# Entry
Amino acid sequence: MDHFLHLLSSGLARGAVFAVFALALVLIWRAARIVNFAQGAMAAATTYLAFAVTTATGSYWLGLGAAVLGGAALGFAVERGVMRHVAGRSPLNSVIVALGVVMVLQAVLGIAFGNDYKPMAVPFSMEPLWVAGTPLLSPYDLYVLGAVAVLLVGFGLLFTRTSVGLRMRAAAFAPETSRLLGVPVSRMLTLGWTLSAAVGALAAVLVIPTELGLNPHATDTLFVYAFTVAIVGGLDSPVGAALGGLAVGVLLSMVTGYLGSTLAPIAVLALLVVVLIARPSGIFSARQARQA
Amino acid sequence: MSADVPLHARRPRWRPGPAMRRLGLTVAGLALAIGATFALEPYRAYQVAVVAAYLCATAGLTLLVGRGGQLSLGHAALMAAGAYGFGLSSNALSAGGAAGAVRLVVPLAVGVLAAAALGALLGAAGARLRGPYLAGLTLAVVVAVPAITSTFSKALGGDRGLWIEIERRPDALRPWVGAEQWQAWVAIVAAALVLLVLGNLASGSAGRQIAAVRDDEAAARLAGIDVTRVKVVSFTLSAAAAGLGGAVLAYVTQIANPGAYSLVFSLFLVVAVVIGGLGSLAGAFWGALLLVALPEATSSIAETLPVSPALAQRLEGNLALLVFGLLLIVLMIAAPRGIHGALARARGALRRRWRARGPAPAPAPVPESAAARAPTTG
Amino acid sequence: MTAPTAAPGSGRSGGGRTGGGQPLLDVAGLTAGYGASPVLRDVTLQVPPGDIVAVVGANGAGKTTLLRALSGLVRPTAGTALLDGQDLLAAPVEHRVRAGLAHVPEGHGVIVELTVDENLRLGGLWRASGRDLRAAVDEVYALFEPLARRAASPGHQLSGGERQMLAVGRALVARPRLLLLDEPSLGLAPRVVADIMTMLRRLCDERGLTILLVEQNVRSALSVADHGVVLHLGQVVATRPARSLLHDDALRHAYLGF
# Structure
């Protein structure tokens, strides 16, 4: 029972990060109606940036800040430099182009840093705290949950209370009408990518030190997890992404805890297959966005 | 020919039908390739074998993506299924004392079936999905390959891989044909078989149905096409071809290991078919060739660069990835139809110019054949 | 749907019905289309300030394309359009609303995922001043009382007539000089259509708003319009005072199908 509680609570912490990463996917899906297959690799690049800055300055927080800002810049660059030029053609084109971006990023990271695993410093201990004789969350887990909560609240406010948020939502829901109303739709799209990449960067910096380890291909699995979360929750539902993230996090934690970590990708794959066969539109999605 | 074409226009000649032409071309190519192996040193023969093995996979993938509009990022996993299927059955037969052609043909068939089974499963799961979702599913599959081989490491050999007992070249040929050359022959025959089967399928009614489903599913359904069946069947066939490629690769390298069938390799396969031209079998050949030639080129470049050995090693592993990625981005933006598409366009333009100058009254420009029209999937 | 409450006129009351003076919208030789074949051919028309001009014609005549060409969703291949003397076509789509042009697209274009208030605010976000925006939105609430009551409802909860009202209200938030309306009567009951037309006439009379109205429902449109323009296969075949158009049987039979 102790073990179960421990796994449950750390699963929730892990799931919170997956939820954030999935939210980044949801952001771009809503804005551009594409799945950003480059999300993982972009997040890997920014995590390396954090690593480099932390190594150079000795400060974890400077590294984190650099990652988020770098993520924003990278998102901007990828949208303006690459994705913009294949927009409007079939959705598969943007997937394939995104894969090109993945390859370039992973190659550059491999050349610059090597393909071996790099150690990442964390600001808080990863040892679980004992509450009433049961190991539960570690200080690091609490930090992660806190960061995710702040992020979610921030985004909620951004989208529902600000003009920018209103513009972004309008541009995502009805781009043509929005243009007629004076909304700079393509700028909103770029903004969406920028925010999404920054969010993805934060999520990766939070989760990579825990189990994935830092290497150019570390985020492949993270992307699969986030993709699964987005599918489970529905690609256009932020609430779905949040709940889906928690569900996947707990599932992975249980599988890892009871069956071993090597089984994790298999468990996620099984979940993905089950959801795709049973409820392709996701558990929370409002629209049948996915069916062919 | 229609009655209103003037008599002095082309006289009708007997022209073999497309199926016969394809068979003839394949047999000729086969003979040429087999003959050529006599002139190759062993390492080159090995490379020819690898190209042929890759060709099985790229042929299947290019038709699946180009004609069918289904993007698979998991073809490396399908090749892995073929490789492990081959390996396990070859080892089992060897342990059972079998020898001869059986020990070669049966494991190859098992590899094909294993991959086809996995392909059918994925195809069924993905049949109701739009492109990016299927891509994500296949991505999840290929990412899970190392996990699967680790979990069942006793049977599958884990990270190190599975060593395979293979059937070597027949004793009768030993004096004249080298080991690598024989392997190349096996690979070339496999590739020829794949090209023949897929080529016939693609140009027949099956190919038309696949294209119809890709272009407009609702319309295809109204026209009476069983959309799900078409999608599942095309994925399965593509998987079978990839499985044969993996099985052949396992035969040639005598090992099946997860490292060779990674996500990166799946992406390489995608690059190969995009560069060659989506939907084009000839393009699949160019792509497979590039998959072997480019890493070799970048390796030698990396070796000659005046950099530290540590950096050289990092370049060694990643330069090919970088070049492929850049090529993919540039091509998707600028020339989505790939090399073959560009060639077809040039050929079409030349043909029109020649016709306009010819003696006979210029007939209407020949519409590009379906093979040349590599659909950008959009 | 209740008739809009009359607001004290802001701006000019009554329009230049005699049509004298500089037209607010001056379109000359406009040609536009999708792909190879032009949908609009050499369209020339003027809209006097403070008037309602109804554009009518059979399906496919190019009415919607005309509005889309004016608002920039379709790029014309030839011709000019001047809004109060300024070149309208030079500005990108997002900037035309600043020039005083508001386009209510076919099917009203209400963003159903957003609330009524959010839709309205969207109409004027391009304004620098938040206070101006608030004032403009409040004005629309005063004009359209049902919208005020449902300010926090999401768009998908509104009826067809309410959505059309919202779409027009949203356009008004921009305080436009020229309002382009594409088939506001589409899918609405006759009673509701009559209310809308009355509202448009009021907006024109009491606020000096100039309206270019594309309509399938010829009678309703011509009954409130000052002028009528008949489009047929992308060309202007008649430009007349609305009343005369309404009573010209031959013309109506030929181009309007009744």
Notes: Residues 1-19 of chain C have pLDDT under 50 and may be disordered. The domain at 25-108+177-256 of chain C is CATH 3.40.50.300 (Rossmann fold). Chains C and B do not touch (no CB pair under 8 Å). Residues 190-207 of chain C form the longest helix (18 residues).
